[in-house]
Amino acid sequence: MGRAAAAAAVLAAAAACAVAGVAVGRRVSSRRKWGRVIDVLKELEEGCDTPVGRLKQVVDAVAVEMHAGLASEGGSKLRMLLTFVDNLPSGREKGTFYALDLGGTYFRVLRVQLGGQRSSILSHDVERQPIPEHLMTGRTKDLFDFIASVFKQFVEREESGSGYPLDRRRDLGFTFSFPVKQTSVSSGILMKWTKGFAIEDMVGKEVVACLQEAFTRNGLDVRVAALVNDTVGTLALGHYHDADTVAAVIIGTGTNACYVERTDAIIKCQGLLTTSGGMVVNMEWGNFWSSHLPRTSYDVDLDADSPNPNDQGFEKMISGMYLGEIVRRVILRMTLESDIFGPVSSKTPLMAAMHEDDSPDLTEVERILRDILEVRDVPLKVRKLAVNVCDVVTRRAARLAAAGIVGILKKIGRDGSGGIVSGRSRPDTRMRRTVVAIEGGLYTNYGMFREYLNEAVVEILGEEVAQHVILRETEDGSGIGAALLAASNSSRNVDTVQML
Ligand code: ADP
Ligand code: MG
Questions:
Q1: How is residue 369 annotated by DSSP?
Q2: Ligand nearest to the CA of 480
Q3: Do 177 and 249 share a domain, yes or no?
Q4: How far apart are CA 290 and CA 30, in angstroms?
Q5: Looking at residues 200-228, what average pLDDT do you find?
């Protein structure tokens, strides 16, 4: 038989089968399609698996990379940036201070009144606005003019009737949550953008100078007394309330962490002297990478399609900017294998809402699929599938973040490995109470994420050690902490406390 004849025969046979078995075929094909979709889910589950053994490998890798990043400039994907914060607020700061917090999604303006006693933040006012998308990829001047004008309106509104002249001098802490090479506690140069920002003419510029120029253009007299990362602000507030706070983690649009390091362990900066003997180090952990991280084809594709390929690998598995996108890619793949969903877009908060739907027939999932994603008539088993996908992606993210936290504790000897011997604590090596401050929209608003993270920390450390480790959620710490640091660095307040 020639090739054409053979093809015709196959086609004829196929057509005959098709005609004969349309009804049965539909059932079989839909069963087959469903099987393929389940295979996609299984493959995802396997690819995202994070048994405790693997998490411990990640913990070790984090600690090793921290050492390498402290040993030499460029020694690790963890940049381990100096912050020049060598003392944390004492609690004795007094007066009115301001903060600007430029996150990845939101911009916040804060006014904080300090009463001069520990934990006596008399009041704080916050205004939060989404950052207009066009400003994230526009020009430096436009972004900073927006910041200065929102600040000006805030000040006018907050202080109307107070008798303060608009042009009086104000002290401010600026939370700028992008990698900055600090040159002092109140100055630094932008190294690169993350979280979807791409303002080319800003990279390599002095951040505070850009802000200061915008204030001048807007007729405001503001002294930027501290330039801090959001993690550092969170650590400052955490430490203000609880002196056992040694590290801070942000899990919002992006993710990052900082902690208090001994100055003599910062080998790349020989001769660094601080009165406290320590300094806060901004890890920039979003860029952490290790072969132990469970990476799937969805992660590879997401990275390749992102504006910053091969960058921020840890962040792309963990934070709010990416989780919804991973889920969207999985669902798209399921749709290609069958036709269960149709095209879908997914943002992380929607994903969280679907994931947390605990009604027996998943009415919230149905509503979101119908009203927001415009996918109609989705049967219950498919809705359950969507929840499963959210669960796998979130569980992996939360558990990896937990491994990151334990990695820090390991680096600073607070993971109990030296402190508790064969289940009995000895008085001389007792595990010290250790607090880690955490904030960010993903951790705060996504209950399932928070539960998975907290649970994994206990799983990795073991119950006995974990009793001594407290994950403390702070609110607006990234901003309030910057105001506290502005206060402790202003000439009016010189008192500080030891942090080691
Ligand atoms: P920023 O990162 O701008 O400082 P946030 O810390 O408030 O701001 O984090 C905002 C991010 O947190 C959002 O972009 C989103 O990814 C995530 N997020 C906010 N609310 C939820 C929610 N309910 N469920 C899941 N993720 C959320
Ligand atoms: Mg933030």
A1: I
A2: 2
A3: no
A4: 40
A5: 95
If asked whether residues 363 and 396 sit together in one domain, one would say yes
| Same domain as 304, residue 398 | yes
Query: 153 vs 224, 341, 407, CA distance in Å?
Result: 18, 46, 43
Task: Note whether 177 and 323 are same-domain residues.
Answer: no
Mean pLDDT value across residues 303-332: 95
Contact between 247 and 259 (Cβ < 8 Å): yes
Taking residues 5-11, report their average pLDDT. Answer: 37
Give residue 428's pLDDT.
Answer: 45
CATH number for the domain harbouring residue 299: 3.40.367.20
Residue 208's domain is classified under what CATH number?
A: 3.30.420.40
Q: Name the pTM for this structure.
A: 0.90
Closest CA to 493 of 90, 218, 3: 90
pLDDT at site 25: 54
- Whether residue 489 contacts residue 80, with contact meaning beta carbons closer than 8 Å, is answered with no
Q: What is the count of structural domains for the chain?
A: 2
Residues 336 and 372: beta-carbon distance below 8 Å: no
Q: Which atom in ligand 1 lies closest to the alpha carbon of residue 440?
A: 6
Q: Which of helix, strand or coil describes residue 224?
A: strand
- Cβ atoms of residues 132 and 138 within 8 Å: no
Residue 489 domain flag: no
Residue 150 belongs to what H/E stretch? helix 140-159
Q: Is the CB of 348 under 6 A from ligand 1?
A: yes
Cα of 225 vs centre of ligand 1, distance in Å, is 28
Whether residues 159 and 213 fall in one domain? yes
Q: What is the pLDDT of residues 442-468, one digit of tens each?
A: 999 999 999 999 999 999 999 999 999
Is the residue at 38 inside a domain?
A: no
Residues 306 and 437 in one domain: yes
Q: Give residue 7's pLDDT.
A: 38
Ligand 1: distance of its center to the CA of 319 in Å? 9
User: Distance (Å, rounded) from C-alpha 315 to C-alpha 194?
Assistant: 10
346 with 449, same domain: the answer is yes
Distances (CA, A) of 117 to 91, 93, 95, 185, 485: 5, 7, 11, 24, 15
Q: In which domain, by residue range, is 125 found?
A: 84-228
Spacing, Cα 301 to ligand 1 middle (Å) = 23
Q: 257 and 142 in one domain?
A: no
Q: Strands 424-425 and 420-421: what pairing?
A: antiparallel
Q: Provide the token pair at 78.
A: 């963890």
Closest-lying ligand 1 atom to the alpha carbon of residue 319: 16
